[in-house]
Amino acid sequence: MTEQTTSSAPPKMAARHVNVFYGDKQAIRDVSIEIDNDHVIAFIGPSGCGKSTFLRTLNRMNDTVAGARVEGDITLDGENIYDPSMDVVQLRARVGMVFQKPNPFPKSIYDNIAYGPRIHGLANSKADLDVIVESALRRAGLWDEVKDRLKDSGTALSGGQQQRLCIGRAIAVEPEVILMDEPCSALDPIATAKIEELIHELRGRYAIAIVTHNMQQAARVSQRTAFFHLGTLVEYGVTSEIFTNPREDRTKDYITGRYG
Amino acid sequence: MPEHTIKAFDEEINRLRGLVAEMGGRVETALEDAMAALVEHDNDKARRVVSEDRKIDLLEAEVEKLVVQIIALRAPMANDLRDVIAALKIVGVVERIGDYAKNIAKRVPQLGAHPTIEPLSLLPAMAQVAGEMVGDALNAFAARDAALAEAVVARDHVVDSFYNGIFRALLTYMVENPKTISECAHLLFIAKNIERIGDHATNMAEMVYYAATGDYLPERGRDTGIES
Predict the structure, then answer these.
(1) For residue B147, what are the contacts with CB-CB under 8 A and spacing of at least 6?
(2) pLDDT tens digits, B25-49
């Protein structure tokens, strides 16, 4: 493995020697990696390589999968997220997630954003909530397109707008980490470009990890790339290095289209 | 190396490498023929070198077009990307080498018979080394052979020494035989052309090394070893 991050501050999230099992089947083998605010990290690899499984262990989305078991340490600000004392609802607010298919609630645009802040008690008044909603929609790059129809249903938006609404919904609860699982695979190129631009703008404020099948997208949006294969982290490094001069043959064969 | 899942990509890469090889072969021939024309005072051969240069230029244009197409349509990555970029840069260099060979050929008719100019005897040997460097750099590209590329770079000083020696010999000769100054000036330019060919072969070898390994050769000193 090449080029582990060498920042002086402790990493926002760190995984150390993580193994994940689904029943008897091991999906992740001894993966160690750090995720931080100053760079977007892309997880790439063929289907079934474990990249989505690994992403989901970072906010315990795998807890709901029967038979799923996680070994090793995953820390958020140094705190083990699998510790029994960890409040999982709180964890998922701090580590937000955006999915492949836009999944807005069947509610108004306003309520999609306001839902999280309400249940997490982030707003004391309607005015507070208005501010949170506007701010989240602005950061999601959606405000100008929806400000005059906040009462319309979120599901009435276009696919790209819905995905930005979902990102706004994740942002509204002031997360520290945003996990994205193929956020653009259902979107057209223009909507994709808007999400990518948004990722670029959110970088620095949040630690962002993105799973993508589109290697050009990984190359465009990330500063670090991790290549997974058969449940192992084969290579991790600076994105421009990985795409011009990967050290591992498996990485090279995959990114040049020679895999399999 | 395993094949690409998309076979057409392999075909395009192979066609690209084939065009570079063809262009390189033509340039090697151009240099050999230009030197033969010089030694044998063969003006017809010299003219052919000049007219054949057009084909080298056309091949360069074809490679450039194919490289742009591959980058646009295939989005090459890693070693593929390095191969394609190296091919683009190499044909630019090869085209320049072709121009130097053409320039040597153009001087042949202006030299007339010159059996008496003694330093001329060193030029074919110098051109031989430079020509081998060009050939080896092209072979290194074809075989992705980093060691061969390094060996080319290591040989550049031989051509430089030849040049320095010929430069001094021609200066002395001109002082002693002022009537030959015009011819000697042409020979000096020819020596300089060959020296530049050696430099270009070295550049080419550096690109080949990068394409093959992904790393750059350690920076060589800025001092080129050329006295003038």
Answers:
(1) none
(2) 999 999 999 999 999 999 999 999 9
Residue pLDDT, tens place only, A13-56: 999 999 999 999 999 999 999 999 889 999 999 999 999 999 99
- C-beta atoms of B81 and A252 within 8 A: no
Q: Give the Cα separation of B5 and A208 in Å (integer).
A: 31
Class of domain A13-255: alpha beta
- Here the CATH number for the domain that contains residue B54 is 1.20.58.220
Provide the residue range defining the domain that includes B48: 7-213
Whether residue B117 lies inside any domain: the answer is yes
How far is it, in rounded angstroms, from Cα B101 to Cα B108? 11
Determine which of A217, A258, A259 to mutate to test the interface with B (most B C-beta atoms within 10 Å).
Answer: A258
The reply to whether residue B5 touches residue A258, judged by beta carbons under 8 angstroms, is yes
Is there a domain that residue B118 lies in? yes
With contacts defined as CB-CB under 8 Å, which chain B residues touch A219? 77
CB of A189 closer than 8 Å to CB of A23: no
Number of domains in chain B: 1
B223 part of a folded domain: no
Asked whether the whole model's pTM tops 0.90, one would answer: no
pLDDT in tens, B135-168: 999 999 999 999 999 999 999 999 999 999 999 9
Contact at CB, B78 and A257, closer than 8 angstroms: no
E strands present in chain A: 13-22, 25-35, 41-44, 68-76, 79-80, 95-98, 177-181, 207-211, 224-229, 232-238
